Amino acid sequence: MRLRPDRTPAPVRRLSTAAAGADTVYLVHPGALDAEVHRTLAAALPAGSGLTVLDLSALPEYWEAALTGGRAATTVEDLAGRLAAELLGARAEDAPTGGSPTGDARPYTLAGWSFGGVVAQALVEQLPAGQRPRRLVLLDSIAPTDAYKPSDEELDPTLLLGWFALYLGAKRGTPVAPDPERLAGADVDRGLEAVLDAAVAAGALKAGTPVFGLRKLYDTYVDGLLRNNRLTTPYEAVPSSVPLVLVTAEGSLIPDDPTLGWEPLAPRGLTLHRSPGDHYTMLSRPDAAALIAQLVHAA
Amino acid sequence: MLVVTASEAQQWLVEKIAHKLGVEQSEVSPELYFDELDLDSTEALILAGEMENWLGFELGTTTLWYHPTIKDLAAFIAEESKTRAEERHAAAS
């Protein structure tokens, strides 16, 4: 919901500030969960390291599309350009000299979660060569390649309801596991009844929560997914000029697919890792954060 | 479709929010921003869905963003409800 004017989210959110001479990791966040979720990663980084989130959900042209039917009046390239400017500004402020007109030339790592990884990869290619990260760490991001661009129709209710249950569990801090047999082939209303039953049983929602209330949350969640899908469809990614590191979650949105389609975009190398958790809880679980911290911090 | 006044909408919101938070209605100030009421975005959207079911028309999710207090939202709902009733009346006449 809209916050008080003095609490409007900013695109650059410093979750932890680096000590003098220490590295800062930058991470592109696409919303869905609050950017504060990355505090688990901030805590897992070596003492003195910084973590700055570049929050797409602070850009009105992006977040409003999740509330108005899933159509954003912007492009992946434009979003990447906006965040590239924010990244360069943040790095100039973080530079040891206290700010440099040519930017901070020290090596750094950029990461991106989910659709944030797609925008982060586009962002890297918009940066001047001397300002690019040493690597890009993708956290359960699905590549913007043709084979991995589903049509809206391919996002059927059974698939979406399963993802929605994961999302609801992450939002409420407790797993929500609806009966798969009730989800299989169900329409949205019947499927949401199964999700609601599981959420109430898990203590994620109060008993008596009406299904039409949950429908509003579901519709907004799906509009956010459709927005990202529709932004990705016309987007033609260029191969990465930096090495890619992909971390898939054990409970990824596309299970049992270790590359998520990134190979054609990784001429400088693609390293694969597996983290505990699902697409959402990989951000809040300390065991997943410990793995991710090693990957974003490695020299 | 229901036609409601601002005070009816405000009372409905106060009752629902007090129930969700497990507090007395007197503790829910209509002047506070929703985020000050300890109502997270999940609960706010579920509340929006309940509200639409009560009113019988869709408000649009951005309504909560652009009318971020109970008082603001209740005034908007009353205005919207009145406008829709007038449009329906005009269409029927």
TrEMBL record, chain B:
Keywords: Phosphopantetheine, Phosphoprotein, Plasmid. The keyword Nucleotide-binding does not apply. GO terms for biological process: antibiotic biosynthetic process. Pfam families: PP-binding. The keyword Phosphoprotein applies. It comes from the Bacteria. GO terms for molecular function: phosphopantetheine binding. Residues 4-81 form the Carrier domain. Gene3D superfamilies: ACP-like (1.10.1200.10). This is Acyl carrier protein. It comes from Streptomyces globosus.
